[in-house]
Amino acid sequence: MLPANYPERVYAGFLGMNIGIRLGAPVEPEVWTFERIEQVYGDIRDYVKPYRTFSADDDANGPIFFVRALYDDAADRELTPRDVARAWLNYAREGVGMFWWGGVGVSTEHTAYVNLRSGIEAPASGSIAVNGEILAEQIGGQIFVDVWGLLWPGDMEKAALYAERAASVSHDRNGLYGARFIAACIAKAFEADSIGEVVEAALGVIPADSLYAQVVRAVMDFHARHPADWRACRRYLEAEWGYDKYGGVCHIIPNAGVCALALLYGGGDFARSVYGGGRYAIDWRKQAVEFTSVTPMAQHRGEWSLRDGGLHYAVERNAAAFTGNYYTRDVEAEAAFTPLSGESHGFVARALGIERFYWLGLAEGGTVSIRRNDFGWTELASTAFPWEPGRTYALKMIVRGASLRLYIDGTLVLEAEDGRFTHGMYGVAMCSDASGVVGEFKVDFSV
């Protein structure tokens, strides 16, 4: 039985996949080492090139085209490798688009395509016996298989079986294990409560003694020992499971390690999984005003502008500037606030829209306050704090589980417990008429 929100979750899966593709494509060539990416771009928090058009490749097109095998040939029976091979031959233009046409014996997909055109049927077309071990175990085995996990929500075995049959057109052994694992992860995600549960369950559909399972287990073990340092895990992978140890252009084993790293250290949070740790800072000097909002936030009410390296606000009644992921759970945020007028300056957390969120900040009558807005305000905690207009205060909020804490200049000044909102966006907000300046906005998801 399909989940009630199945179409939305499938859409989210494809959206996330394409965001990742477009983030990574400009730095995909081998010349872009991790060190060079850090030197040129630092921590990547946005697309490194402005996209107006994007030539979709096998990463994006493969899941769409190869599922057509179900419509064209296997509508009323089980899918076979030969069905997917016919989709290859029918929808891929020879030498143009879709695949990397890097040469027979170099590109796994190019080689498999030539095999099919030469009369070698699937799955022999992707076998080690025909193409050799290195070519058959490149990354493509797990690139095209998202759709099978999406088609079989909660059914890891079926998703893995169809992924294996599809991947066998061009890959073998660890290449197939990668297909099974990734499809199973996606299928399991429909019903799991945590990423750890997803990864552990998906390992059950591949041989426990396979190299693929070993590298995933190695990352799991490292993550258990160092749960907050993904960079250390990356260095470990490079040293123990690096591309220098496996042949071909992009072998599946090192890539499997990176996939496991992103899943486990992402912890189920989209931004952390894509950007790496989710820790980042908004430098207002690098932002712009687009469609009347200051990037990367969406403002509700008030006047917002960028000047002298700060976010300036002047609001009447109440106003807010939201950013982040709607499904963000635990978060730490800090920024320097300089209140100029009014008696409300602070953070917004777990925002589920403009009428449902928590607020933590400087409040009326020389106090600090933690409040909940749910189509009406409830004060959760308050205490005296003689703040002054014109002075700059370093505010920090830590929201973890039901705990909400407010720090000022490094000191915990107020805390409250409330479990009504479990996730949401974050940002800055004012509950009444106010003006002021917000300095660099730092966010950390590893709280």
Account of the 3D structure:
It is a single chain. The protein has 447 residues and is α+β, with helices and mostly antiparallel strands. The protein folds into two domains: 6-275, ADP-ribosylglycohydrolase fold, CATH 1.10.4080.10; 280-444, Sandwich (Jelly Rolls), CATH 2.60.120. The protein has 16 helices and 18 strands. It has helices at 6-24, 34-41, 58-66, 68-72, 81-91, 108-117, 128-131, 133-136, 146-151, 156-167, 174-189, 195-202, 211-225, 230-241, 252-266, 270-275; strands at 280-282, 289-290, 293-294, 298-300, 303-307, 310-315, 319-323, 331-342, 345-351, 356-363, 367-374, 377-384, 393-400, 403-408, 411-417, 425-430, 434-438, 441-444. Strands 1, 5, 6, 8, 13, 14, 15, 17 and 18 form a nine-stranded antiparallel β-sheet that branches. A hairpin with a 3-residue loop joins strand 10 and strand 11. It is elongated and about 80 Å long.
Record keyword descriptors for this entry:
Jelly Rolls, 23% strand, 447 residues, 36% helix, 9-stranded antiparallel beta sheet, ADP-ribosylglycohydrolase fold, alpha+beta, single chain, 7-stranded antiparallel beta sheet
